Automatic annotation (TrEMBL):
Belongs to the DarT ADP-ribosyltransferase family. It catalyses: a thymidine in DNA + NAD(+) = an N-(ADP-alpha-D-ribosyl)-thymidine in DNA + nicotinamide + H(+). Residues 22-212 form the DarT domain. This is Uncharacterized protein DUF4433. Keywords: DNA-binding, Glycosyltransferase, Nucleotidyltransferase, Toxin-antitoxin system, Transferase. It comes from the Bacteria. It comes from Frondihabitans australicus. GO terms for molecular function: DNA binding; glycosyltransferase activity; nucleotidyltransferase activity.
Amino acid sequence: MRAAGTRSTPVETLPDVNLATMRAHHWTHIDNLESILRDGELRAGARPELDVSSPERRESRAAAAVPTGESVSDFVPFALSPDAATWDEVRHGADGPGWSAAARGTRPTDFVVLVVPVAALGEDFVVADGEAAGALTRFGTGPVEGGATARRAAIADPALANIEVLVPGVVAVSSVTLIGVPNDRMRDRVRELLVTVGVAAVRVAVYPPWFKPSEA
């Protein structure tokens, strides 16, 4: 029984976010896809043919560290949402200081989205609840701590649009289960590229909403 005049403290219920069942998304310009496929992997710190990041953004991420001590630039970045906040900035014209002049010269339909199951990312990934180089960003390492970070972030960010999933070193192309594209023309281009490079069959699907700027 509860003593008279006392109140029980409500237990905070966190949103149900199960990383093991989710997918991670990595968006890149179509001009970068061939080299990714030929290399057979996404590489941390790679300088793509068309680099959407400004020098300032690269410097900021290189200077920032995750709790394990490594630089943010030592990780391959993914998003839990195909409508990630950073990707949406590019879809809206890449006007911010974090983006390059090359990024501002692109259209959303010039990009593709590589999709990998979170379960295929190993055990060493790091979850950031916002921009990984941000001063107030919180991190969780691995599936357990990372899952807890994602659940806490989901209170204010139900769509998980601001979360980054950082994977150390490289991510094999063989773990990609889907390449999302904006239209039929891009689908045909990507399929032809997969055949040319000799990559094992990867599903290529048209998802127009992934490439449209969000509405204000």
